[in-house]
Amino acid sequence: MHQLHCCWQGLLQLAHQHEREQVPAFDLQYMRMMLQDHQQAIELLTAASQSTDPEVRAYALKTLPAKSHFNHARSVHNRAY
Protein backbone atom coordinates (compact mmCIF):
# COMPACT_ATOMS: atom_id res chain seq x y z
CA MET A 1 0.00 0.00 0.00
CA HIS A 2 2.87 2.37 0.81
CA GLN A 3 4.33 1.88 -2.67
CA LEU A 4 0.95 2.67 -4.22
CA HIS A 5 0.71 5.83 -2.14
CA CYS A 6 4.21 6.97 -3.19
CA CYS A 7 3.46 6.22 -6.83
CA TRP A 8 0.21 8.22 -6.71
CA GLN A 9 1.91 11.10 -4.90
CA GLY A 10 4.52 11.37 -7.65
CA LEU A 11 1.92 11.07 -10.36
CA LEU A 12 -0.29 13.69 -8.73
CA GLN A 13 2.63 16.09 -8.34
CA LEU A 14 3.40 15.66 -12.03
CA ALA A 15 -0.23 16.24 -12.94
CA HIS A 16 -0.35 19.40 -10.82
CA GLN A 17 2.78 20.72 -12.58
CA HIS A 18 1.12 20.20 -15.95
CA GLU A 19 -2.26 21.68 -15.07
CA ARG A 20 -3.29 24.20 -17.69
CA GLU A 21 -0.17 23.41 -19.73
CA GLN A 22 0.06 21.36 -22.88
CA VAL A 23 0.61 17.82 -21.66
CA PRO A 24 2.45 15.34 -23.89
CA ALA A 25 0.28 12.56 -25.27
CA PHE A 26 2.22 9.92 -23.34
CA ASP A 27 1.49 11.59 -20.01
CA LEU A 28 -2.19 11.89 -20.82
CA GLN A 29 -2.43 8.26 -21.90
CA TYR A 30 -0.53 7.09 -18.83
CA MET A 31 -2.87 8.96 -16.50
CA ARG A 32 -5.92 7.56 -18.27
CA MET A 33 -4.51 4.04 -18.06
CA MET A 34 -3.81 4.37 -14.34
CA LEU A 35 -7.31 5.70 -13.69
CA GLN A 36 -8.89 2.84 -15.64
CA ASP A 37 -6.79 0.19 -13.89
CA HIS A 38 -7.55 1.60 -10.46
CA GLN A 39 -11.25 1.87 -11.26
CA GLN A 40 -11.24 -1.85 -12.12
CA ALA A 41 -9.41 -2.65 -8.87
CA ILE A 42 -11.97 -0.65 -6.88
CA GLU A 43 -14.82 -2.51 -8.57
CA LEU A 44 -13.23 -5.87 -7.75
CA LEU A 45 -12.54 -4.87 -4.15
CA THR A 46 -16.07 -3.57 -3.74
CA ALA A 47 -17.43 -6.91 -4.91
CA ALA A 48 -14.95 -8.78 -2.68
CA SER A 49 -16.07 -6.75 0.33
CA GLN A 50 -19.37 -8.66 0.11
CA SER A 51 -17.63 -12.05 0.17
CA THR A 52 -18.65 -14.73 2.62
CA ASP A 53 -14.97 -15.64 3.02
CA PRO A 54 -13.83 -13.61 6.05
CA GLU A 55 -10.23 -13.27 4.83
CA VAL A 56 -11.27 -12.01 1.40
CA ARG A 57 -13.77 -9.62 2.92
CA ALA A 58 -11.24 -8.29 5.47
CA TYR A 59 -8.62 -7.69 2.77
CA ALA A 60 -11.11 -5.89 0.54
CA LEU A 61 -12.37 -3.67 3.35
CA LYS A 62 -8.80 -2.87 4.43
CA THR A 63 -7.76 -2.00 0.87
CA LEU A 64 -10.81 -0.02 -0.25
CA PRO A 65 -9.76 3.23 1.48
CA ALA A 66 -7.29 3.59 -1.41
CA LYS A 67 -10.37 4.73 -3.31
CA SER A 68 -9.77 8.23 -1.94
CA HIS A 69 -6.46 8.35 -3.85
CA PHE A 70 -8.31 7.38 -7.01
CA ASN A 71 -10.93 10.07 -6.49
CA HIS A 72 -8.25 12.70 -5.98
CA ALA A 73 -6.34 11.59 -9.07
CA ARG A 74 -9.53 11.62 -11.11
CA SER A 75 -10.30 15.19 -10.02
CA VAL A 76 -6.76 16.30 -10.96
CA HIS A 77 -7.13 14.57 -14.31
CA ASN A 78 -10.48 16.23 -14.96
CA ARG A 79 -9.09 19.69 -14.15
CA ALA A 80 -5.90 19.22 -16.14
CA TYR A 81 -7.27 17.53 -19.22
How is this fold's topology laid out?
Blueprint: H1 2-18, H2 25-48, H3 54-63, H4 67-80
Distance between the termini: 27 Å
Q: What's the story with the biggest beta sheet?
A: none
Total strand segments: 0
Mean pLDDT across residues: 76
SSE pattern:
HHHH
The Rg value, from CA coordinates, equals 15 Å
Our estimate of the beta-strand percent is: under 5%
Unreliable stretches = none
Structural class, please?
A: mainly alpha
In which range does the helix fraction lie? over 70%
Q: Helical stretch count?
A: 4
Oligomer: single chain
Shape field: elongated
TL;DR of this structure?
It is built from 4 helices and no strands.
Structural account:
- This protein has helices at residues 2-18, 25-48, 54-63, 67-80.
- It is mainly α and 81 residues long.
- The chain has a domain at 54-81.
- Helix 2 (25-48) packs antiparallel against helix 3.
- The chain starts with a helix and ends with a helix.
